[in-house]
Amino acid sequence: MLPVSRTRYTARARRRGARATLALTVLLALPGLSACRESPDKTIHIRIATGSPTAVYHAFGESLAAILNRELPDVRAEVMVTAASAENVRLLGAGEAELGFTQADVLPADPGPHPQMAGVARVYDDLLHLVTTANSPVQTLTDLRGRRVSVGAPGSGTEITVQRLLTAADLDGGQVRQQRLGLDDSVAALRDGRIDAFFFSGGLPVRAVAQFAQDTPTRIVDLGEWTAPLRVGNPEVYVPRDIPRSVYGIDAVTTVANPNYLLVRADLPEHLVREVTRLLMERRSELATAHPAAGRMSPRSAIATSPLPLHPGAADYYRASKP
Fold first, then answer.
1. I need a surface site. Which of 83, 124, 232, 276 has the fewest CB within 10 A?
2. At residue 304, what are phi and psi to the nearest 5 degrees?
């Protein structure tokens, strides 16, 4: 009798197992359940590559991250402190950031048929500051010969622009005693007398420069005459722009300006980039409270991100919102 009972028990167990397998299959076929099983965490992480904590990129990025976190439920955005433009482009290309700010002159003139990044918007213009003290003998660019000058942090857009400027002025090849310092370190070094001047490229106003000018008699050197020589090799990048007296409370000057872009990894989904672009444009007044430069964006100028194309998601938003 024992063998017969075992046979019946085994058959019943097999039938129960078959029914359980069928039930599990049906459950997994229901909408949403199979997806949850395969990807239990649907959070989209967005890393925004910015720059120095006292510069425009960081203020802009912090405000943008707060907006994305508040208005896109599945998104968790965070800001990365970086050396700025050149490092941001590297991080995007390496897949170590999803969004990033950069100066236009950092980008290759020909990004190729399949670039790793694309444009979200032209956001504002960076203006090159050559900052020194009011009693300094540095009154023109050529006065930098033989002097100690911070040319920007390694990996920054400032450093790239300044090297081109020094070449145009025949000040390359060791004629300037260059130090590669970030913005905060440059301000501290000038205040302490360890350097004679520093360069920084940023949107108006640069908070660290404004704070320095409040505490120390300051001069910003006029660089307007050097825009034309810089345009010889970069005709679509550099333009002259004024720094009015109202910005820092010191004499107005003309300097070299450089378009500034918000970029995104090219492989990000179109619907996500469309939403980022929408919030970037629709929340301009809120972004401007973080830094006035953000308030200068407009859909008409935002689409100009040459040499990079707009991301399809960004292009879709601009087409749909065109009046």
1. 232
2. -90, 90
Helices 312-321, 270-282: axis angle to 10 degrees equals 50
Domain-embedded: residue 145? yes
pLDDT per residue as tens digits for the range 41-78: 689 999 999 998 988 899 999 999 999 999 999 999 99
CATH no. for residue 178?
3.40.190.10
Alpha helices, DSSP H only, in the chain? 2-29, 33-38, 56-71, 85-93, 157-168, 183-191, 207-215, 227-231, 245-248, 270-282, 284-290, 299-302, 312-321
The pTM (predicted TM-score) of the whole model is: 0.80
Whether 119 and 264 share a structural domain: yes
Pairing state between β 99-103 and 44-49: parallel
Residues forming a β-bridge with 73: none
What is d(CA 295, CA 288) in angstroms, rounded to the nearest whole number?
Answer: 4
Q: Is residue 292 part of a domain?
A: yes
Q: Is the dihedral of CA 164, 101, 241, 228 positive or negative?
A: positive
Q: Residue 121 forms beta bridges with which residues?
A: 262
